[in-house]
Each structure stands twice: as structure tokens, then as C-alpha cells.
Amino acid sequence: MMMKITKNAEAALKKAALWFGPYIRIGIKDAGCSGFEYTFDSDSKILETDQISNDITVVGEAAQPFLKGSTLDWVKEGVNERFKIINPNEKTQCGCGVSVQF
Description:
By secondary structure, this protein is α+β, with helices and mostly antiparallel strands.
């Protein structure tokens, strides 16, 4: 399994898929002060090289080494709710928690 998906995250993913498409693609991109940011995009297809963590979540080939062993959670922090990736491969995070370094 590429990523563990918590029950809270699975419920949020199912709601998101209703609005945005059948699959939610999780990836990474070069950005932020620490180097990389996680991305969440809708997609209508699965590629042969993709890894599927449940029936909705897709991780592309380029992001797989970075996300292997991670957990996707849906957290409430004050009045905000968001997906949070708990990733043992991260070396550091920026102060605001948006970007990470591997």
C-alpha cells in the first residue's frame, strides 16, 4: 500500500470525488521555502504506473518515492479543516507547515 488513509480522510476524499471527479491525485511539486509542496488534483484516469491507495486516491510515479509509507488524514484545527500528510520521509517543514524538505 502506497499510503495509509484514515477513516476521516476517506470520508473527505469521497465527498471531494463527488465534486471534482472520480479520482483525487496526490503528488508533490517544487515550491515553497522548504523545497516541495503536496498537491491534490482531480483526475479522470489512472495510469499504468500509478499506485492506488483506495478506490479514490491515486499517487503518480514521480511522487511515489516521496510518499511511500505516509498517512493521509483529515484534520480539524480550530475553524479550519484540511488534508494532512504525515510523512516519515520528511526531513523538515517550513514554519507555516505548507512546504517540506526530503
